[in-house]
């Protein structure tokens, strides 16, 4: 994919000979990285409300990071497609005739309308309903009504769909990156793979999607959700007190040794993080699922540390906006929709070898806990919306936020790859914002001369 910015830093808006250039004022990016201080644990609340910050995130974080697109199980034959977003850019993910997964900007090159309006399905081509321009599974422009009306200089090969240059898969999870020279997905994940594999590699046959994609809208900045899933076990006993009471066998809430359990929190330099309790008898919550698993076989496959830790309970985020919960097979994306709004898309993924009754038990457990109306999900959404609802007040917005828990507790620990801290810590949150600040102050690939 050619660099869409001219050497002088002004964006080329058409073919190389179009003569179009954007004024420098439209492409300049302010340095907002000083709005977080991971060293002291202070965060400027305006990072959740300011439009300039948000626009800079679109340019410097979402245009250069590995972003989750879909699960491999959503594509079985050529023409299968799924519509999603990378930041606020609409994306078509599809399987071409050679059964390769590809991703394109879902925008016609003629007047800019979407060429695919269905959420998912099967197609031989993508045709814009505005003027009828049609594009093949390889992104090429294959049909132009009244093509004789165009000048001889018009070349169809110049006006195909804009393709995401990097699409890679990790254990069934498909990610895309606009940076043509980005490091590989596996390199970017680094030690995070060890923690992800506790969810994705339990079954040698891999994972499958059940129940489709659930979608809902929340009032809140996307970072509130992403950093909570990266770092925040601290909220569980308070925010989810009623849910924990409902789920406990006695109806009185979890036992003291469960409520006050200890664990670990992992993070790496790329902002990825996973937090989890550690206990020799960690287990899956859904009784049917727990009874089906052979924990000795899991220990043989994944090792004691993973079975006693990230295999079951816990939370994780792949920077910037992909999160997951191993206990119920929930994976989700926090799609940004402006500084004050996000759209949550959630899948349930399960081990492929699970029999139907076990799959159904886990699917229902996920719905009851972390579906759109789940007893835990409702608590989280209320918290984020509450934080956002008052964040625009002058005094509120200019009062720094505290991310100091666990400062000085980072360590390298045998049995757990990467940097770890205590379960109750803001360590991974500080790492999340350290990576955020690094990208926000560094020119991206499209800004290079």
What does this structure look like?
- This protein has 449 residues and is of the alpha+beta class.
- The chain folds into two domains: 67-169, 3-layer Sandwich (Rieske Iron-sulfur Protein); 189-440, Alpha-Beta Complex (Naphthalene 1,2-dioxygenase Alpha Subunit, Chain A, domain 1).
- It has 15 helices and 22 strands.
- It has helices spanning 24-27, 51-60, 185-189, 192-200, 222-231, 236-239, 241-247, 256-259, 287-292, 295-302, 304-307, 356-370, 377-389, 394-397, 427-440; strands at residues 36-37, 42-43, 67-71, 80-86, 89-95, 101-105, 120-122, 126-127, 134-135, 141-143, 166-170, 173-177, 207-219, 263-267, 273-277, 315-318, 322-325, 330-336, 341-351, 401-402, 411-413, 416-422.
- A nine-stranded antiparallel β-sheet has the order 13-19-18-17-16-15-14-22-21, sandwiched between helices. A four-stranded antiparallel β-sheet has the order 6-5-4-7, with no helix packed on it.
- The protein is globular, with a radius of gyration of 23 Å.
- 40% of the residues are buried.
């Amino acid at each position: 994919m050619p660099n869409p910015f001219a050497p002088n830093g002004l964006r080329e808006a058409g073919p190389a000979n179009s003569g179009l250039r954007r004024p420098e004022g439209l492409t300049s990016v302010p340095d907002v990285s000083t709005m977080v201080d991971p060293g002291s644990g202070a965060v400027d609340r305006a990072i959740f409300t300011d439009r300039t910050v948000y626009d800079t995130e679109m340019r410097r974080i979402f245009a250069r990071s590995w972003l989750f697109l879909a699960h491999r199980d959503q594509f079985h034959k050529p023409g299968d497609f799924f519509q999603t977003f990378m930041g606020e850019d609409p994306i078509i993910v599809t399987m071409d005739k050679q059964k390769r997964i590809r991703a394109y900007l879902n925008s016609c090159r003629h007047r800019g309308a979407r060429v695919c309006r269905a959420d998912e399905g099967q197609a031989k081509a993508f045709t814009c309903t505005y003027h009828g321009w049609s594009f093949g599974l390889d992104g090429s422009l294959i049909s132009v009504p009244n093509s004789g009306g165009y000048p001889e200089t018009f070349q169809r090969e110049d006006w195909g769909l804009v393709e995401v240059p990097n699409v890679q898969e990790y254990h069934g999870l498909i990610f895309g990156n606009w940076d043509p020279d980005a490091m590989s997905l596996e390199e970017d994940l680094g030690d995070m793979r060890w923690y992800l594999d506790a969810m994705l590699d339990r079954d040698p046959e891999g994972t499958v999607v059940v129940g489709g994609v659930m979608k809902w809208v929340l009032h809140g900045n996307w970072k509130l959700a992403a950093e909570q899933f990266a770092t925040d076990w601290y909220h569980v006993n308070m925010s989810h007190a009623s849910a924990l009471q409902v789920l406990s066998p006695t109806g009185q809430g979890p036992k003291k040794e469960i409520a006050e359990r200890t664990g670990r929190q992992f993070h790496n330099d790329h902002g990825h993080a996973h937090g989890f309790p550690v206990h020799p008898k960690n287990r899956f919550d859904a009784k049917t699922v727990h009874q089906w698993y052979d924990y000795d076989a899991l220990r043989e496959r994944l090792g004691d540390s993973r079975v006693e830790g990230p295999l079951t309970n816990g939370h994780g985020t792949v920077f910037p906006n992909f999160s997951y919960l191993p206990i119920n097979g929930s994976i989700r994306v926090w799609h940004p929709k402006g500084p004050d709004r996000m759209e949550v898309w959630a899948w349930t993924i399960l081990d492929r070898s699970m029999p139907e009754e076990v799959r159904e038990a886990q699917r229902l457990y996920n719905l009851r806990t972390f579906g759109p109306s789940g007893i835990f999900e409702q608590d989280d959404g209320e918290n984020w919306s509450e934080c956002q609802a008052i964040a625009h007040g002058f005094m509120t917005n200019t009062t720094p936020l505290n991310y100091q828990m666990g400062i000085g507790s980072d360590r390298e620990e045998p049995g757990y790859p990467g940097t770890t801290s205590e379960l109750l810590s803001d360590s991974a949150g500080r790492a999340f914002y350290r990576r955020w600040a690094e990208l926000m102050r560094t020119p991206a690939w499209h800004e290079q001369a």
